[in-house]
Amino acid sequence: MLSKKQLFTRGMFDISPHMLSVIPFGIICGAIGVELGFNPYLVYAMSIIIFGGASQIVFLQLLSGGASSLVAVTSVGIINSRHLLYGAVLSEYLEKLSFIKKLLISYFVVDQGFAESNKFFKKNKDEQYLHYHLIGTGCTMWVCWQIATLSGIVLGSFVPAELGLKFAIPLTFIAIVVQDLKKIDHVIVMITCGLSSLLFFDAPFKSYIIISPVIALFVASLILRLKK
Amino acid sequence: MTWFSIIIAGILTYFMRMTMIALVDRDLLGDKIKAVLEYVPSAVFPAIIFPAIFINDYGTFVEMNDPKIFGAIVAIIVGYFSKNIIATILSGLISYWFLIFVIFS
Question: B1 contacts in A (CB within 8 Å)?
Fold first, then answer.
């Protein structure tokens, strides 16, 4: 049985490689916000209030492009609606926590933290303080995101644009799913999701980001039915 | 007005994060749904990966010889065999840089 501290540290350790892409992306996000002409305090406040990577940039880009606040807010909501799926997966492991702890821990759930903690949870179902792993991944992500966006806001885009570091984001997610390419059912689900996201890319409010997972999960349910 | 929108967007995002963890009783989900949830990472992350590789900043498809496609293929191969996150990210970035700075420059 691992202690709370060990689990927390393990979470920090498991998510830290992703900081290689999260930190440059955070710097870019902060810098773009200021370049688009927004108040620096406002750009930074988003990292605390929304704490949602790409959705923060989309929000500012939409507003600066002349979209209404309603469109910008709706887009953030739709982009981040994938967290409903993460929550549904994580709830299996967080069931026994008190309501207050569930409310607090929810704030820290992000893509990479969900992915790495979920992998750890699946292998260590019997640990008593599992949620400390999720707090570890979430807090690491939070601290790095705050520092990265803040430095982008203060120092400007000191990461040369020519390096194309935005490309590190898909690479981070490739690292997350690449081992599942061993399983044919997962490959089918991934390709379904990927192709749907290209097909629906122009759908309003960036909704491809939730439409394609829904289609892919429908395909997954068909696969499960065939397997029986 | 922008401040107000950010707060609403933040509350909305928090609700997306919190609803399934804190508000919805897990027993409401049937066994079939629980089984499908096993596929969530594979069903969600390609929606972030594919557009970031195949669609450029102007919302149009990239050429088939785009350096990002090559970088992604290298990252998939290295990631598959190394099982290492840092190696996956770096191999993808370095092969991408090799193409844009050495080959296409």
Answer: 69
